[in-house]
Specification:
Radius of gyration: 22 Å
Distance between the termini: 31 Å
Length: about 80
Amino acid sequence: MTADKLKEYFALFGGWLSTVLLLLQTLGLYFDWLNPESINAFVAVLMASVPFIIAAYGIYKNTYLVTKKAKLQEKELEKKGLK
């Protein structure tokens, strides 16, 4: 899954939240905390999280400190002067 696809899903979720807001208002239910501004802010946080999550996953996958096997690989690389 690409970053653009994740952003599309988050935008879709924001649209769904907006639809829920309209449904609740039609039924006469009003919540001060659920408004278009809070929905837009929530979607913005989700979209800003995408690059962070991808970068964190990349760092996690590229470190040699996660598993025992990875630690052994790191030692071998250091022995061979490759790290």
